[in-house]
Amino acid sequence: VEAEKEINSLRKLSPCNQDYRIHYEDFKRDFSVRMISINRLYKENGHWYIDAYCHNACDERTFRVDRIQSL
User: Fold this and answer.
1) How far apart are alpha carbons 55 and 52 in whole angstroms?
2) What is the pTM of this model?
3) Which of 12, 16, 37, 42 supports an S-S bond with 53, CB 3.0-4.6 Å?
4) What local confidence, expressed as pLDDT, does residue 18 receive?
5) Residue 26 CB partners (closer than 8 Å, separation 6+)
6) Residue 33 CA from chain centroid, whole number
7) pLDDT tens digit sequence for 1-44
């Protein structure tokens, strides 16, 4: 079930100069809504990650894909 959720999330993402509004749960289990522009999508240590420009933080951030609640 987790792998299926991860795959479905990945299918919606494309680093093609498009902005995405995401609902994100961080490692502290705090939720936030972010507007991001994807720079890179990669897998490391068994998890998928997105390096993106976060318009809310006005800075580069890394987001773990399985923590994105919705796009």
Assistant:
1) 9
2) 0.77
3) 37
4) 82
5) 32, 67
6) 11
7) 565 666 666 666 666 668 999 999 989 999 999 999 999 889 99
DSSP the chain: -HHHHHHHHHHH---SS-EEEEEEE-TT--EEEEEEEEEEEEEETTEEEEEEEETTTTEEEEEEGGGEEE-
| CB within 8 Å of 31: residues ≥ 6 apart | 23, 24, 25, 69
* Residue whose entry in the numeric block shows the structure tokens 């951030």: 61
CA–CA separation, 1 and 10 (whole Å): 14
Q: Phi and psi of 3, rounded to 5°?
A: -65, -40
pLDDT band for position 71 (cuts 50, 70, 90):
confident
Structure tokens at 29: 């289990």
Per-residue tokens: 70: 């919705």
